[in-house]
């Protein structure tokens, strides 16, 4: 597609439920990033995918968080047993390879855990 | 002390004013990004710099590697420029994709 597409745009879930967030990067962008932005705070790195290489999961805050990406296509971020502190906007970005290339961000998924 | 500092944190100006947002960093970098986040949350990548100066429309970004400082300028500012402007750097010693994010500068342009 023309941009990075994320779905859903908004998600309200009950504490303890699992949620799955989806990111569809720009075609040809081999690098994909997930970030989290809590209200009033900066961007927090979660996970990075580059092609078929093993992802860097060093930013995932707990083992309740996991992400997958098949090849260079869609990625899903899964949060199990959601907690209220998981409430945030989850942003996905993609770029053409790594190195000094610009990022294109999706519009984010606003997750609210009640 | 944060490795990336932005100033000011908040800036309110009148339409038409020349705007400058500053970013200072304390680490060796391979690139610096300026991004714009609109009130709805969408983030747009404005510039990526490793040296010198770039211009796009009314936006100008400069970087001084020796002084570890970058500025984002907006000429003839307009209310639609109201957004949070974020500076982020790629630390030279880190993996190629890791960014260190500034806290952002909230800009409000009044008509």
Largest inter-chain contact set:
A-B, 23 and 24 residues
Structural class based on helices, strands and sheet pairing of chain A: mainly beta
Order of helices and strands of chain A: EEEEEEEEEE
Rounded mean pLDDT score of chain B: 91
Return the string of H and E elements of chain B. EEEEEEEEEEE
Approximate helicity band of chain B? under 10%
Shape verdict of chain B: globular
**Record field, number of beta strands of chain B:** 11
| Residue share in helix of chain A | under 10%
In short:
The complex is a heterodimer of chains A (114) and B (111). Chain A has strands spanning 5-7, 10-13, 19-24, 31-37, 43-50, 65-69, 75-79, 88-95, 104-105, 109-113.
Written description of the protein model:
The complex is a heterodimer of chains A (114) and B (111). Helices cover 0% and strands 46% of the residues of chain A. Chain A is built from no helices and ten strands. Chain A has strands spanning 5-7, 10-13, 19-24, 31-37, 43-50, 65-69, 75-79, 88-95, 104-105, 109-113. Chain A is globular and about 35 Å long. Chain A starts with a strand and ends with a strand. Chain B is an all-beta fold and 111 residues long. Chain B contains no helices and eleven strands. In chain B, strands 2, 4, 5, 9, 10 and 11 form a six-stranded mixed β-sheet that branches. Chains A and B meet through β4, β5, β8 and β9 of A and β4, β5 and β9 of B.
